[in-house]
Amino acid sequence: MNATIIGEDETDIGTKVIDNEGIEHQVEMHKETGEIYAHAQDAYPDDPEKRSSHEDEMISQVQKYAQWHVYCEREYDTLPPRRNPDRIAATLATIREMDDAEFERHFGTLVQQLNSYGDDTVDRPIELEDAVPHEEGVVYKQDVYLDATIEDVRGYHEEFADDVESFATAVVDRLAEAGVFGTLSDRLGEFLESDGSDDVDSQSTDTTPSEHLRQFGFTHVSEPYYMYHRKNKPARTVGGEDTYQRAPDTVIEVIPTPTLAESVDYFRAFLAHHLLCQIRDTYIGMGVEPPVPYRMLGTGIHHYTIKYKHFDMYPMYFDTDAEIDGYGYY
């Protein structure tokens, strides 16, 4: 991918993008929101219904890359929060640094819900509706809102990358010790085979913040909610109707895996790994290899996990056993 800015006025900005197949695109967007109002190119059908999944994904990648380029070059807030690696990295840093009491306050309900899958004596705080095909086939979510502006977090994922390797190694060692990867891989395999979707006293994690890193906090974390896929119907989300006045900075997405909830330490380590993989997905989704420290295997943004499963153009980045050049789980 390669992009240049070709014009700008008080409200809008235009870009030229060359995609990974050498096709030239002109993409125009509103500077304040990043909303794309024009996209011209001559290689793919303009009607989405007439595009192949590959062609449609190329269009999607170009639009995401155009928004990213404007964000980087002009510092306008053109990225949707969930696709902004700086916001995700700031969320990860905050989770890394908070004490156990605060962590349990934010995520204790989700931990209990996951625990209920492996222990019948644990009360399930979230009852699943009867239409759920099977109780393992759901994705639990929580919306996270940072106490930070876009100016506060800009460039943070690059700053955080300097610490990623040693941090990620500690995280993965902790998860491997718990046997999480094998269990998670089995659960994920079962989930993806039945998702009904064509859319698509050991070493512990070092949670001591590095002195040179910026630090953040949360203003709000939603209650857990869930979604599930349905055959020949759109996915259904139950709950999650948060009244907060803006989009969340990050959405945590977890499939039911009791091993994750055996201890707060394990679940914190899993969330760290999950968010590192989300940063990876923000790059893959715009057709670009992520920075080396974020080339991890595992589950990140669920929407991309489904794409990796169903689209031949993508390797199986969600699979910790996959052999993808340059990728691993430390």
Domains counted in the coordinates: how many? 2
**Rg over CA atoms:** 20 Å
Count of helix runs: 8
Order of helices and strands: EEEEHHHEHHHEEEEHH
Biggest beta sheet attributes: 5 strands, antiparallel
Structural class by sheet pairing and helices: alpha+beta
Molecular shape = globular
Tell me the number of strands.
Answer: 9
- Portion of residues in helices? 25-40%
What proportion of the residues form beta strands (DSSP E)?
Answer: 15-25%
The whole-number mean of residue pLDDT values reads 87
Unreliable runs, pLDDT <50, ≥5 residues?
A: 183-192, 198-209
Distance between the termini: 27 Å
At a glance:
It is built from 8 helices and 9 strands. It is of the alpha+beta class. It has 2 domains: 2-74, Nuclear Transport Factor 2, Chain: A (Roll), CATH 3.10.450; 82-310, no CATH class.
If you had to describe this structure to a student in words, what would you say it looks like?
By secondary structure, the chain is α+β, with helices and mostly antiparallel strands. It folds into 2 domains: 73 residues, Nuclear Transport Factor 2, Chain: A, CATH 3.10.450; 229 residues, no CATH class. The strands form 2 sheets. Strands 5, 6, 7, 8 and 9 form a 5-stranded antiparallel β-sheet that branches. Strands 1-2-3-4 form a 4-stranded antiparallel β-sheet. Helix 2 crosses helix 5, helix 2 packs antiparallel against helix 7 and helix 3 crosses helix 7. The longest helix is centred in the N-terminal third of the chain and has 22 residues. It is globular. The relative contact order is 0.16. About 7% of the residues have low confidence.
